[in-house]
Amino acid sequence: MGVITTLREKLHFVLYALLAAFLALIVFEWGMDFSGFSGGGTLAGKVNGTPVEYRQYEQVYDRLVDDFRSRSPQAELTDGLERELRQRAWDIVVNQIILDEQFEKYNIRVSDEEVLAAVESDNPPMVILQNFINPETGSIDREKLDSSRMDPENRDVWLSIEDIIRRELMVNKLQGTLQAMVKVSDSELDALVERELGTFSASFAVFPYSAVGGDSLYSVADPEIKQYYEENRDLFRQEPTRSLEYVIFSAIPTERDSLTIKTELASLAEDFTLAADDSAFVSLQSDRADTYDKVYSRADFSVQAGDDLFADSGLKAGALIGPIVDRSSYRMIKVQEVMKGDTVARASHILIPFSKGDVSGEKEARGLAEKIMQEIRSGKKFADLAMQYSQDPGSAANGGDLGWFSRTAMVPEFAQVVFRAATGTLAGPVETQYGLHIIKVTGKDNSAIACSEIVRNIRPSGATLENARRKAAEFQIEAEEKGFDRATEIFEKTKNTTGPFTKTGVIPDIGYNNSIVKFAFNASKGAFSDIVQVDAGFLVLRVAEINDSGFRSLDEGLQDMIRQELIVRKKGEALDGRLSLLLKQKNGDLEAVAAAFGGVQVIDADTVRFKEQAVPVYGNDIRLIEAIIGMEPGTVSKPVAVKGGRALIVLRGKAYPDTADLESEKARLLPMLEKVKQERFIQDYFTAERRAATIEDMRGL
Q: Which CATH number describes the domain made up of 253-459?
């Protein structure tokens, strides 16, 4: 009875097996059915008027937690993960009710006879397949299955299994009902054949938006922005959000705190030197428990810490170096061996990004890169130019300095240039996925050490924490009496804003924090929080905005986004008009139209294939590819919206492989296309049902 014992122990996980039986969204998120819900208690919410008992929701949550712990026994259930699992439990309960409504809507029923027939069939339900398969034969072990079913001790377990099977069969029937609504047209099949087999030759020219002037020529009035927002509200649909204002009282370690940590670490020096088992000593004393038997280069330290270590005259086997400060920690290193290792490099760079396929953007970026190179050659300091021009937020403020790094720490194109060049070399522009880089190689080193180390993070002391907490409490009292803004003036604090966030999303600039989320979604607008401790210190927060409308507010940021979208739209309309007129005047001569713009080139691409998702010579632009394969040979396109502007295309020809039998290919591709359309239809159907449902979430958090 081993199988049944296992099933009895993990019965509430059995439904995960249904994932393979149907679309994951539908079966898990929509088809999960936990039996044995207990009644009574407060409501967690309602779905289309159907009550959801809090105990029901909690049972689903507890089972998700059990499953998480069984799969990841060593993992921590963090605030963020707990919130994710709670939201997932709520979604499961909501989706189950909506699914039950679909069963009623389409009169989906499964009889006891159908359940029995499914168990005895050659293609049994998933719960049977996963638990009664004979691994040697690949077939169902009927003797074991029948023995388990007939054993009176297993009666309760089998009743639950039958409920699971019934649910799977009902989902299958609903799936079949919805799939029957989907048909594939001849034109859709023809288009798929062209995408799979066609090779196209085309000539085209891309006309950038800048060809019709700058943004300042295209004004957008506030009513236009509001009209766009109202006409496209579905684009701005979102979960309920909150925005908070807050001040932070930093608990930054003082010099005294730092000295205390350093002194504590230094007091371990003798014992660390004499320790016979570094792993045990490090595990006990270090804030990073795995820092033993390591090989380090300069790339494993900050620049200053690396200099302190590798320039130390006492660096030799058996030496104990430190404590040395490295960013926000102290490190004391027990050297086992000094050696030569893989070369690491130090470099600075200036990053000039551009979008792949944006011809005008790339041209502008290369022009700027050449200008910067000329300024460097004329004697201007690299660091000053990096702070002025570089778009890499991580290094620009440091004059472009990237510190020490290994070859594999950088993208291949960047690393190849740096590690081939000599120290002092100025290189570039080098193109990578991030854009163009102007690079200055500032160091090479192959020094390395084998060692163990004790690391102590520099933390604020209890006194420092208490001082910050006291100031936060004083601020809170002042804010409640005189107002948040006045309190920030009195305490000379900066007022921060989170921007909107959902119950399950990250709080901008703060991260996951359950206590803050609970406060935000349970308090009224203008309410003050209790003092909240975070890694950086102590926060006092106020609810600034509440949005339960289901749509993003037309705030300043969204207005700017819509304004830019409308400017691009107006530029596109201007381009369309000018190109259409020129096409008529030049009798469809693409070269003549391009020449009229000046600087626009006609590109010939002879092997455009949809599967490759890129146009030879030009690059990736799916809208350009779609336009090319949708044309007939010998025709000239109307202006086509592409990345960065408009395109005019002449399709010179299309061909299929000589061995291709188009009718056979259609017969092969038809079931594939049907399946894709059916899956997409079902996904969209249930998404629409969920969106249309009246869902009352009363859980709090």
A: 3.10.50.40
